[in-house]
Design goal:
Layout: H1 4-16, E1 38-42, E2 45-48, E3 53-56, H2 71-83, H3 93-104, E4 110-114, H4 117-132, E5 136-140, E6 166-169, H5 174-184, E7 188-193, H6 209-222, E8 225-229, E9 252-255, E10 266-270, H7 275-280, H8 291-306, H9 309-330, E11 335-336, E12 347-348, H10 355-366, E13 369-370, H11 385-405, H12 413-421
The protein binds pyridoxal-5'-phosphate.
Length: about 425
């Protein structure tokens, strides 16, 4: 819970940081009790600036895949730190990492590491345009691809020209995809696809295999490239590109967040069908070739290949989902829990302004469990059956309290603004 230390930090932040905090981790997007600042993270737990400890289902919005501060990954990072990190040229680890990523991801023949997911999604757009000589990029309505002018969900500071060649279609809707492709005429450079629908505020949805296959075919017919944005879901569903699950291989896939278990690195992967475009663009950054995150990534990928982390998360996620459904029913609530169990999203039926969801997240926070009221969450491999038991016991008490205060809940003003914006 936000306590005196968190409040003091917020007051200082308000003076030296616009809005006190920016981007997806800004606490004004969450219930008022949520702390802004954290001091420690280990395994499945985080500790806020006031010393409160939480079982954390946000996993840093995705980067924590194996558990915070995984000893094996961090030892590899520390070893590399002693050798060299950001240097005048890349370390040999750049080649090792490109080899490791292309060996794991079936469609990929090459890799270009970068720093954030937005780097990888923006580079994918540039590669597609350079490869095809065309301009039009199609994205699914409501899908998040990052914070650059072409894709940020908050259009302040963006001009119409930034998005002049961006078109939209509805996820899993073949007719709307076909219409968007037809509207692009001969100018289609790429179709962007999320591995599954994981938009904020909305029910998650797995990809319809027919829609995925049609997206591939439409690209092939138009001489355009297919891009899967695996920044959020990468290596959480399968040890490969997520669309292997529906039997469709893209030309490009963007990766980030979790493949170095929280160390800062992302990557664009591509097949030979996009190699010339990738070779043609100018893309770089001062920290893109830092060796420490590459060492962390190589160790993370080794662990992903050699352990049952996905199967473990699916088993725990299944327990969590069914246990929450039962607890909700016992207290007179109905949950909407869709999509992969290892990336849970917990929404309430009949809760259009998210007042119940905000109340639920606040009650869970009081119980020492950090859940998000409108964003998808993540399980990490460090979670145990005991953690799920803890979360379910907490949920039972949280929902019991929520049932008694339900009639008094009010929508938070930010929810009105956010749901209107999406
Ligand atoms: C699907 C997807 N694409 C791209 C991004 C942007 O990644 P980053 O915030 O690292 O720039 C995100 C971040 O949440 C994401 O979820």
């Amino acid at each position: 819970m936000s306590g005196p230390k968190d409040q003091a930090l917020r007051a200082r932040a308000a003076r030296v940081i616009p809005n006190g905090m920016f981007g997806h981790q800004a606490t004004h997007l969450l219930p008022p009790a949520f702390p802004q600042f954290f001091t420690h993270a280990k395994g499945a737990h985080i500790r806020d600036a006031d010393g409160n400890r939480y079982l954390d289902f946000m996993c840093a919005y995705g980067p924590n895949l194996l558990g915070y501060a995984d000893d094996r990954v961090d030892a590899a990072a520390v070893r590399q730190l002693a050798r060299g990190d950001t240097m005048t040229g890349p370390s040999p680890l750049l080649v090792d990492l490109a080899e490791a990523l292309t060996a794991m991801v079936s469609h990929a023949d090459w890799a270009m590491p970068c720093k954030n997911g937005t780097d990888a999604t923006t580079m994918a757009m540039m590669v597609a345009r350079a490869q095809t000589g065309k301009r039009r990029i199609l994205v699914a309505e409501g899908a998040y691809h990052g914070a650059a002018p072409w894709c940020t969900p908050v259009p302040s500071g963006v001009v119409a020209e930034d998005r002049a060649h961006i078109g939209h279609y509805r996820y899993n809707d073949i007719a709307s995809l076909e219409a968007a492709v037809a509207a692009a005429g001969t100018d289609l450079a790429a179709i962007y696809a999320a591995p599954f629908k994981h938009d904020a505020f909305q029910d998650q949805a797995l990809p319809d295999p027919a829609y995925a296959a049609r997206a591939r075919q439409l690209c092939d017919d138009a001489g355009a490239l297919l891009i899967v944005d695996d920044v959020r879901a990468g290596f959480r569903l399968v040890r490969d590109c997520s669309w292997e699950l529906v039997g469709v291989r893209p030309d490009l896939s963007s990766w980030g967040k979790s493949f170095a278990n929280g160390h800062p690195i992302s990557a664009l992967l591509g097949s030979d069908s996009a190699r010339a475009g990738a070779a043609a663009i100018y893309a770089t950054g001062s920290f893109w070739f830092s060796a420490v995150p590459m060492a962390a990534a190589l160790e993370t990928l080794r662990i992903l290949r050699e352990t049952d982390y996905i199967e473990h998360s699916v088993r725990l996620g299944t327990r969590l989902r069914s246990g929450l459904d039962a607890a909700a029913a016992a207290h007179g609530f109905t949950l909407r829990q869709r999509g992969p169990v290892q990336m849970p999203q917990i929404l309430f039926a009949d809760d259009p302004d998210f007042r119940t969801g905000f109340g639920w997240a606040t009650e869970m926070l009081r119980e020492g469990v950090y859940v998000h009221p409108w964003h998808n969450m993540f399980l990490s491999a460090a979670m145990t059956d005991a953690d799920i038991d803890f979360a379910l016991d907490a949920a039972d008490r949280a929902l019991a309290r929520l049932a008694t205060t339900r009639a008094l809940l009010q929508p938070h003003p930010i929810v009105r603004a956010l749901t209107a914006a999406h």
